[in-house]
Amino acid sequence: MKKQQRERTRILVGCEGESEIGYAVHLRRRADEKGLFVHIDPPKLRGGDALARLEWMEDYIAKEEARRDPFEHKYALLDTDQNRLTPDRADKARRLAERLGVTVIWQDPTHEALLVRHFEGHTTRRPPSAAAATAQLEKLWGGYAKGMTAMDYMRALTVEHVARAGDVEPDLLSLLIAIGLVTIVDEA
C-alpha cells in the first residue's frame, strides 16, 4: 500500500527584486527548520510600478494555476516609493490586487525600511526616503547591501526579528501566519 504524501501549502510571494526574493526564500528556510509543510514560490515580478508588477503577477497566477493546484495564499512585496508619483496607477494596483486575492505587503517606502522594523527598538521607525531607510538599516545590519541572498538573511534575521516586524506590519503578519511561523493566541 502506498504511503500518502502530505501536500505542502502553496504560497505565492511576488517579489519586486532580488532582495525580496532572498527574504522570501529565507522565510521558506525558516519554515523548513520548523518542519512546516509549505512551499513558497517567490517569482521576480516584471519591472515598472506596482500596477505593472501586479499585471505581470496576474498572468503568472493564471499560468501556474492552470498547470497545478491553486495557490492557497497570494502575497506581493512591493515598495511604495513610486506610488506617490502616479497615485492613479497606485489606486488601480490596489484594486487589481484585491480582485486577484493578493495581499500586498507595502514596503514604505522600500524593502530596506521594512527591514529596519525587524530590529528591536526600531519597529516604529518610518524612514522618509529610500536613502534614509538604507542609512538606518546599514547602522543596524553591518554589511547590508541590496540583493542579499537567503543565506545572508538567515545569518542576520531570526524568526523573532520577523515576528517583531509582523507586530507592526499587519500584512506581513498575515504572511507569517499563513506560513505557520507565527500563531495568534486568543487571550480571551
From TrEMBL:
It comes from Asticcacaulis excentricus (strain ATCC 15261 / DSM 4724 / KCTC 12464 / NCIMB 9791 / VKM B-1370 / CB 48). InterPro entries: RloB. This is RloB domain-containing protein. Keywords: Plasmid.
